[in-house]
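Fold this: Enoyl-CoA hydratase
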Amino acid sequence: MSDQISVSREAGIIRIQLNRPDKKNALTFAMYQAMTSALLQAADEDVRAVLISGCADSFTSGNDIGDFVAAASRDSDDIRIPLDFLQALAACPVPVVAAVNGLAIGIGTSLLLHCDYVLASNGARLQMPFVRLGLVPEGCTSLLIPQLLGQRLAFELLVLGTGIDAERAAQLGIVNQVVSAEQLLPAAETVLEQICQLPPQAVRLSKHMLKGAQADTVSAVIESEGQLFKQRLFSREAQAAFAAFAQRSAK
């Protein structure tokens, strides 16, 4: 398990914290694997909820570009690893609460669509700049964002890659609650406490009812987006965008 992911399990709650502050919690393949392993524990009967949060001043700045460029250059099966995480998150049988502080870029916003309750600090910034990197939407965003917002707003967020603040995210229904940075984790703990006070099997069954009708569709779209995303990693557009990103990072 990656030491850049902190996982604890206590009183029926699995807490997953992204812990790579020097890279604004950018996600490596090892971090994805650690999160997937943690999410799979939610199948245990004594687990009541999952909390996902980020350390320091970011939720996550998205995928570690270096990891993905290296995997693409050798046509590695590692590209499969983020899809396994997304499938585990989408299929998680217990409520998943996300506490978003600071940046939530790319997958940092995509994964929120699979969570059941999302809190954000008033300084949070959400963005899905896939097309700007020569890539395509992932994480079932091409299905879930148009369902939530309609085609025109989906185009704005997914194709233009427009960033939004926490208040706008709440207005759009991506975020449930906006609080100060200091109150973010305490407010998340309050939500977790509320969940844990409910009858656990009723909670699991109700979540399944809310998501079950299109669970197979969500799973299939995650896979189809993932295949196209992998193809785009080899495109000239993506390679040029990655090179430009590397140059900016080196300055």
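Strands lie at 5-10, 13-18, 49-54, 58-60, 96-100, 103-105, 117-121, 125-127, 164-165, 177-179. DSSP finds eleven helices and ten strands in the chain.
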